[in-house]
Write a structure and sequence with these properties.
Elements: H1 2-19, H2 23-32, H3 36-49, H4 60-83, H5 103-139, H6 146-149, H7 152-180
Helix pairs in contact: 3-4, 3-7, 4-7, 5-7
Length: about 180
């Protein structure tokens, strides 16, 4: 187990060292290239659907699908945020000044938290219910059966759609609502 952690950290450091020179290019493409959202969703879903097959059920496929779904949704969300003109560069120099804590600021922070969490919970419920109902009708199966939900053709699409939706809402819809409400 400790060797797994050490190897994971070393692989991550190697990846960071190799990829660092292209971070600005990748960031620019993620924000501006019109094919980026499609590529993120198609790649994430393909990787999830082609997860290595096991001879027994394991939650690792579902966990991987959730991670890839949120990643794809985040890519779509930051692209949308940039298209809507909601990205900005700070005008002040670093380090930025932290505003003094006031009652109004505290209320704004609490309101942002409540709105954000509520929207994410609502999104998860709606996306999960709709995707499961659609898949149940498409494959003519009962989605109430836990074993049916573990089937590849049901589990991957419903988890991917649900968590991609959460990624989009968290990174595009919630900031847009904050902007509209001047929060």
């Amino acid at each position: 187990m400790p060797l797994d952690v050490i190897c994971g950290v070393l692989i991550a450091l190697l990846f960071l060292a190799v990829s660092f020179p292209v971070w600005d290019i990748v960031d620019h493409e993620l924000l501006t290239n019109p094919i980026c959202p499609v590529l993120a969703v198609v790649t994430g879903f393909s990787l999830s659907y082609n997860y290595p097959k096991l001879d027994h059920y394991s939650t690792t496929r579902a966990d991987t699908t959730i991670i890839l779904g949120v990643g794809a949704g985040t890519c779509v969300g930051v692209w949308l945020t940039n298209q809507w003109g909601l990205t900005y560069n700070p005008e002040a120099t670093f380090p930025l000044r932290i505003p003094p804590i006031s009652f109004i600021l505290l209320l704004q922070v609490i309101l942002r938290f409540v709105i954000g969490v509520a929207l994410l919970v609502i999104t998860r419920c709606i996306a999960k219910i709709l995707s499961l109902k659609l898949l149940g009708a498409l494959y003519n199966v009962s989605i109430r059966d836990e074993l049916v939900r573990q089937r590849l053709e049901i589990e991957v699409p419903y988890k991917f759609v649900t968590y991609t939706s959460i990624g989009v809402v968290a990174t595009a819809v919630v900031p847009w609502i904050y902007y509209q409400l001047e929060l």
